[in-house]
Amino acid sequence: MVRNSLNPVFLLATTLLVAACSESPEEALAKRWPMLEQYCTECHSDAEQAGGMSLEGVLPADVAANPERWETVVRRLRGSVMPPPGGTHPGIAEVGRLVAALEANLDAAAAARGAAPGRVMLHRLNRVEYATAVRDLLGVDVDAARLLPPDATSDGFDNVAEVLRVTPTYLDQYIAAAREVSLRAVGSPRPKLARADYVSTNRNHSAHVDGLPLGTRDGLAVTHHFPADGEYVFNLRVSAEPGAELSAYRRSWLAYPHRVILAIDGERVFEGELGGEDDLRDLDRFQIVTVNAIKDRFRDIRLPVKAGDREVVATFVARTHAESDYVLEGFVPGEGVPDVPLMLGFDVTGPYDPTGLSGGLLSRERIFICEPQTAADALPCAERILSNLARLAFRQPASEADLERLLAFYRQGAEAGGFEAGVQKGLLAILSSTKFLYRAEPGGPPAGLEPGAVYAISDLELASRLAFFLWSQGPDEELLALAESNRLSDPDVYARQVDRLLDDPRSRSLITNFAFQWLSVRDIEVIDPDPKLYPSFDADLRQAFAKEMELFADSILRDERRSVVELLTASHTFVNERLARHYGIPGVLGNRFRRVELTDPHRWGLFGKGSVLLATSYPDRTSPVLRGAWVMEHVLGVPPTPPPPGVETNLTASTEERPASVRERLALHRTQSSCNHCHGVIDPLGQALENFNAVGEWRTFERDTGVAIDPHGSLADGREVSSPADLRDAIASEPEKFV
Known about the structure:
By secondary structure, the chain is α+β, with helices and mostly antiparallel strands. Helix content is 42%, strand content 13%.
């Protein structure tokens, strides 16, 4: 590892410290080596093996010989994990000098060895990359989670080549996925009848849903694939709250007229009404018969639709913002009126009586770049189509051998079903090819180089690396063209392409793919806080947490004017009305997210974001241990050591005794020195965030104990912190740790 090329802050600190002492790296390390023996080898001995590492008997020369081990030592020293809290400590200044000496030796050894970049392993596309590649190639949106097996993860990331293995079962699923995608992309004038079901996730049915037409409430919008021109049947699931359809107290869901709208690509194709005097009177007389008759008004809606991916919207025309007036049921802010008709979802079945393909499929436009006019034109046209698709899918021009294999599939399909069937078989072969499914760099060294020699990768390999890094997908036409002409490796051309790719909306995958995995906020999709303890939490708030993090991280990571340290210190965020109310921010109305400046410094940066606070909590309580470990791993880059086998880690309060505060329960973990080595570092980091509950609300007392929150603690380096703002300031004061 060449450290100074990755972190100039570390290099600068090392240079200044070593230069100030006028010592060579070897002299500086030899001078401070006794300190390492004095404070480290008691735990890191051959007998103790603390953290799985022994430093007993090591010599200064071992630093250059075992750089990976000593990089770990440096990170743990910089993260104040070593020496552990509670024991004797040489002082922050002395630890800093030892770190500087170790870094100087590691950098000098790396420079002496020269660049050793190694080789990139064979890298299978993960599900996100597969879906993105298919959409970019064919304009087809696929549900990769349904088509493909889940990806293994390493250190929280699902795009690590080493764990993206393939089994025979995986191969079967990839081939099945290729068959489904190719059939859908090419299309058929007479496809089989199919049904798709869509379910609403709304909790607040009285509010406007983001993305739906203004002046509507509730409902959902989906992109549905209509495989051919024909008639399709829509069934809208319009109902009341479960159990309220016949309730004498809540039947007022029919007290007023409500209009239902069904629209396709922004054009209203159906509308119907329910509620009002007639429906309410019939409900009194005929009960469930009337309910079923009302629901039948929105079933079996038969409509002609052209082929293509089209937006389908089912919603209500908004008519009132009145809140509930029921005195026996508490009104939960954001939940809306309980007695209005709900749009629970809809299903689409078809096509009935298909009439062909009218040219509405984007995928066909991308595939059929030529049309054979005679039988003699078919093979040359197929060759042109498959060559174009293979170039984009393989991320490099297809070789003659590649093309011949694809044409063999084409001939087989054309003999059975004609030209388009042949193209579909060729596309199936492309999507099943290892050249599409794997990111490989088979170029090898230029002729004449010795084995193990360092050489530059090809421009095509460089284009693929750059595009997957910034876009999570392969290169586009411009990048491919530059690579094919061997111009991409020119530093000026490369720099312009980096700027272009970052300016492109596709680079948002840096946020939704990389940043969300790095910060472990993808997990909030599966965390369900206890509704009895946190009644204000709902699906709308969960979605708002994710959207806030996406917009906040994007505002910093893709802005060349900003420092990455602003992820910790930035005083702005993005909220809609639902999230603003949760954070206590006044004056924000509506579902649209907008940028706001935060007046509460505790909300600044990552430590005040609801997604982070939710992801580092249990469903029924906060966890300073989870939050502290998150800070260590994701902010300081020093993952804590797992607890030894047999150690009790459950902090849930006993029901048979007076509940102890979380702080008191944590103190029990630190009574043993073996536990305190880690918890003395972890707990103060997490305790500083304890004023935020499990769903990110600010609090001053614990709910179950009534004890006042005490966030005070001492960091491993001795600094006192007592709030999220203190913790942020302490870490930001040494930004190189975060960088």
